[in-house]
Amino acid sequence: MADEYLEVPIQLRFGDMDINNHINNVQFARIFEESRVRSFATWLPERPKDFSLLVARQDIVFTAVLEYSLDPVTVRACVSRIGTTSFTLSLTLVDPAGTTCAVAETTMVSVDPATGRPTPVPDAVRSILESQLVVGAGLPVRS
What we know:
By secondary structure, the chain is an alpha+beta fold. The protein has helices at about 25-45, 125-130, and strands spanning about 5-10, 50-60, 75-80, 85-95, 100-110.
């Protein structure tokens, strides 16, 4: 289990702004995608050839407006759940001032590259995911 989140800096793009002069909500999905790619590059630099992933679900809770900045935002990434064929990443987007602007949970499914069907997460990958597991991470409980 991990004691802390992986911090991934992401540079905003001027074109991410909308007519209201803040980062468009659609762009949050792109920012979270980029943070997932960078997280996996850090956690699995030698990703097995037969290991393939698909996004099965992504939930985003928007908590504050994200203003454009030349300074990068930070996405704090961790694994919050590991199942047989899937696992969930918890991602928190923080602006340069330290304000949490959005929280996401992304469920990833391990698939057989030849068939596209779900397959158990390989043991070597499971071990790495377990090292990034943060208990209690995830979206706020809704009442």
